[in-house]
Structure formats: structure tokens, C-alpha cells
Amino acid sequence: MIKLGIVYGGVSTEHDISVMSAKSVIENLDKEKYEIHEIYINKYGKWYEVIDDEKEEIYNLIWTLKKLDVVFPVLHGLGGEDGTIQGMLEMLKVPYVGCKVLASSVGMDKVYAKIIFEKAGIPEAPYVYIKKKENGYIIVNENFEEEEFKVESITKKLNYPMFVKPSNSGSSVGVKKATNNEELKMAIENAGQYDNKILIEQGINAREVECAILDGTEVRASTVGEIMSAEEFYSFDAKYNIPESKTIIPADISKEQIEQIQKLAIRAFKAIDGSGLARVDFFIEKDTNKIYINEINTMPGFTKISMYPKLFEAVGIKYSELLDKLIANAIKD
Prior knowledge:
The protein is α+β, with helices and mostly antiparallel strands. The chain is built from eleven helices and 16 strands. A hairpin with a 2-residue loop joins β6 (127-133) and β7 (136-140). The longest helix has 17 residues, at 255-271. The chain is globular.
């Protein structure tokens, strides 16, 4: 049997989503194929091995991980999806599912992902990058020079509405929409609670679609699914707490649009040097049908309602089979 470690929980704001994802993964694993070792990280960073629903604190983490054949880090957000866990596993020479250190860290950082996507020629919404300092905020321009923070400097480059996002955050945590100067200032203060780097992005009147990536002998893109948010935009609550939010798979768009999105998703994945898996999110502007990349998620949600497994299920790869492929690819690498 393959000794498989499922690492979940973590210190990020997405702790509870990670727990839900891991529970779903474990339920869909072939118990005759895998010897499953549950490893839980609490919100304060303590590691536990979960045996028969009882948590036992791990005192020799290196030994616990080294005895495994492969690890599936079902972790979302900072401290799990940002290259930190990946770096530790690389040092220990333990195979693991998902993107390596570089792709994980770049994919987690929305600002630097946008810089790479721009270099790769992938259309994206205009944006402004600001940093939180001890005495306030500064604007970082395209030459990485620091400029004085002024709302007027932002409104010269972008029009309302704008979306303000912590650069390193997921599941739409800390994301706010701003429709005027006052809301913009409040949204920046809110985002500053989650990260010192903040992305302010031009709002687009758009449909939200997603495409999943599976990396094996070749990089494969799923079909495209559309998000029908119960709120004005796909916020944390809309994703996980409001049942009226739904997904349409495949999205009701043209074959040409699906193919274009698939090509762009693969390009984005390769641009960050991705491996294993990812989910790439796009906007389709309603007035023009132009396609813009939103972001890439290197460890997308794996709950029962998550898009990643549902997108591949729509093209004939069942959840349990998808897990087998991801784990086999990790061991092979």
C-alpha cells in the first residue's frame, strides 16, 4: 500500500476550507490502495497526527513525514499554498502533490502573478500595486519605484468600480468592491489587515469562468465552468455560505471561447512553471466578449462543491480517479 499523508488545516484564513477539502479527499480515496495518514495543522501552527479521530501532537515532524511515500498538502492560503510547505517537503525529499516552490509562491502572490501573465501575453485587467508601510501606504509603479500614495493617482489610472485585494490571500478573503473614493480608502484599510501588499484592479462587467489543469504526461485543461454568484461578486460568503450560488458546467459559451480559455489556462500554468494541478479563473467581459485572466490557484478547493473536481468529472474523470492521477504523478516526479 502507498503510505499517503494528507496534510490539512493550517494557519491561513482558509483553515476551515482546507479541513472541508481534506475530508472530501479522504472520503474519495481508495482505502485498499492507500494507507492514509491524517496530519492536521491547527490555526496556531501546531502539527498533529489524527488517529481514529483523536489528535496526537507530533514531536518529531521530520520522522513523521519521512516515513511517508507521498504527501497531499490539502492546504489553502498562506503557510500552505505559498511554497512554504512545498519547500520543507523538497528539503526532506518527500514527494508531494501539486506545484513546486516557485509556482506555489508566485501563484499565491496576485501582484507578481499579474507581472508574469503580462510577460506571457495573457490579457488581464489594469491594476495598481500599493504597499502598506509603518506610516501609511505607497504606490509601486511599473518600474518598481515608490510613489506617494494619493487616491487621485489611482483614479487617474483606473475607473470605478474597482476591486481591492490582499496580494496573498485566497477564497476572496479580504476582497472588497469600491465605487467611490471613500469606499476605496475603506477597502484598502480592510485589505491591509490581511497583507502588506495590495492589488487594486479595474472592475469588469463580466461573467466569471474557471478552467482546471491536470499535469501528467502532458498538461491537460478541463472544460470551462461558469460561476453564478448569489452576490454582486464571488465573495467568500457567496462561495461557501450562500446556497443560491451555483455553477454551470460546461459554461454556456461558444466552443471557440472554451478553446481560447483552455489555451490561456495552459499558458498561465506554464508561465508560472506549474506542475501537478491548478485552477485558472477568467472574466468574460459582457459587452465585448473579451477574455481576461483573473488569477491562478495552485491548490484549488477540493470540497464536494468545488469547481476543480467537478470540471474534470464533466470530461469523464471521476473524483477518485482524479486523486489517483494526482498522487501517481507526484510519486513519478
